[in-house]
Each structure stands twice: as structure tokens, then as C-alpha cells.
């Protein structure tokens, strides 16, 4: 489930839609948490889907550490990639804001953290853009991502957490 202080907006023809903060989302806020309505699609099931559905699953889902695809039922599937992401996952089926997200700012994630199967050309426009996001990005960027999470994690207990009830590994 995506943070309630967000809304879907059109970004561009190349990117499509994205998720934007409607109010300040402080650093340390849980911006997304897995919930029981998200679909878990095992590889065997994915292989039986018609091509059109399979394309949509690949576009709007992510690969978890167990090899299943997770398809968010809500606007969480519209969180776009940025090489200077506003949110990252600490590895516990939730995402946390690694800096304050201003009203009107896009809520982004670094797709390099999502068990990529194939590289893709990045369109984020960040001054820190890597150009291509690669399946082995965690090998190069994990220390940087861990430092951002370590800075944000202490705020977890200090800010309002409307999604805390969905976090299973507290």
C-alpha cells in the first residue's frame, strides 16, 4: 500500500504516470508497504498468462528475493525509478523515505534494488543519473544505499507512520 499523502499524475509520454507527494513526507516515513491485496505471481503462473497480461505484469511488478513477481494493487505500481531516489527498501517488504519529500515532488525508488532481470535505459534526468540501470547495480551501489537508509532509519520511530500496521517484520 502506498503512502496516503500521494496522488497519481501524468509525467510525460516517455515515462507515463508517476506518484507525487500531496503533503510533506518526512525522512523516515514508510512510503510503501506490502499488503494482503498485492498479488504474488509465481513463475509457473506467469508462464501460463497470455502475452498481453505477461507484458503488464513485467511492466508493473517487481521481482522479490524468492523469485515471485509482486504486483501492487494500488498506485504503488506507478512509483518510478530515479538514480537519486526519494525512497529505498531496507529489505523488509516496505520502503522508507531517505530524505524529506516535498509537496508536489515525485515519490521515486531506485529500481536497481528490485532484483532486475535485464538492464534498462534510465530516463530519470537526475544529475546523478547512471544512464543504464543494471541487474548487478546492488554490487556497486549497496554501500551508498545502505548509508542513505542508515541516516533515515532512526527517524522511523519519530515520524507519523500511517502504514506501520502493514509492516510484518517490526
Give the proportion of residues in helices. 10-25%
Question: What are the secondary-structure elements, in order, as H or E?
Answer: EEEEHHEEEEEEEEH
Outline the biggest β-sheet: 3 strands, antiparallel
Measured between the Cα atoms of the first and last residue, the distance is 17 Å
Number of strands: 12
Average pLDDT metric: 96
Overall, the morphology is globular
Cα Rg: 15 Å
Number of helices: 3
Task: Fill in the keyword field for this structure.
12 strands; 3-stranded antiparallel sheet; 170 residues; alpha+beta
Give a structural overview:
This protein is of the alpha+beta class. It contains 3 helices and 12 strands, in the order ββββααββββββββα. The protein has helices at 43-48, 51-60, 137-152, and strands at residues 6-12, 16-21, 30-33, 39-41, 61-63, 69-71, 80-81, 87-88, 94-97, 108-109, 120-121, 132-133. A hairpin with a 5-residue loop joins β8 (87-88) and β9 (94-97). The radius of gyration is 15 Å and the shape is globular.
What's the arrangement of secondary structure elements?
Layout: E1 6-12, E2 16-21, E3 30-33, E4 39-41, H1 43-48, H2 51-60, E5 61-63, E6 69-71, E7 80-81, E8 87-88, E9 94-97, E10 108-109, E11 120-121, E12 132-133, H3 137-152
Amino acid at each position: 500500500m502506498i503512502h496516503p499523502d500521494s496522488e497519481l499524475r501524468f509525467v510525460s509520454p516517455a515515462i507515463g504516470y508517476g506518484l507525487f507527494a500531496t503533503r510533506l513526507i518526512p525522512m523516515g516515513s514508510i512510503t510503501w508497504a506490502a499488503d494482503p491485496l498485492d498479488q504474488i505471481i509465481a513463475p509457473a503462473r506467469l508462464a501460463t498468462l497470455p502475452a498481453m497480461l505477461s507484458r503488464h505484469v513485467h511492466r508493473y511488478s517487481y521481482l522479490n528475493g524468492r523469485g515471485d513477481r509482486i504486483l501492487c494493487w494500488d498506485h504503488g505500481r506507478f512509483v518510478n525509478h530515479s538514480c537519486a531516489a526519494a525512497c529505498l527498501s531496507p529489505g523488509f517488504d516496505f520502503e522508507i523515505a531517505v530524505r524529506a519529500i516535498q509537496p508536489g515532488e515525485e515519490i521515486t525508488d531506485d529500481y536497481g534494488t528490485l532484483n532486475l532481470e535485464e538492464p534498462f535505459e534510465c530516463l530519470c534526468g537526475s544529475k546523478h543519473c547512471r544512464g543504464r540501470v543494471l541487474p548487478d547495480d546492488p554490487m556497486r551501489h549497496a554501500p551508498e544505499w545502505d548509508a542513505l537508509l542508515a541516516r533515515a532509519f532512526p527517524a522511523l520511530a519519530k515520524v507519523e507512520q500511517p502504514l506501520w500496521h502493514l509492516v510484518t517484520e517490526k
